[in-house]
Design brief:
Layout lengths: L1 E2 L5 H17 L4 E5 L4 H12 L3 E6 L6 E6 L4
Parallel strand pairs: 1-2
Antiparallel strand pairs: 2-4, 3-4
Length: about 80
């Protein structure tokens, strides 16, 4: 799980990218990302769509500040 609460937006972006890369190289298939319901939540779809190691994502209906990222298969 990646928890981005308490990060400034630029720090959150760097932390998100690093953690997704680490999860990919560790062989994980999915990663939960918790953003809260502010600016980071609004930016998350853009960040996800630009990351080459994420195949798809789902935003939780019960909590819009929570995302499930499905990673591409490790080569």
């Amino acid at each position: 799980m990646i928890d981005l609460h308490g990060y400034h937006i630029h720090e959150a972006w760097r932390h998100f990218n690093t953690k997704i890369d680490n999860a990919y190289y560790a062989g994980h298939k999915r990663v939960e990302v918790v953003t809260g319901q502010g600016a980071i939540m609004r930016e998350m779809p853009n960040w996800i769509s630009q990351h080459s190691k994420i195949k798809e994502y789902r935003q939780a209906t019960w909590n819009p500040g929570s995302f499930t990222c499905i990673l591409v298969k490790k080569k």
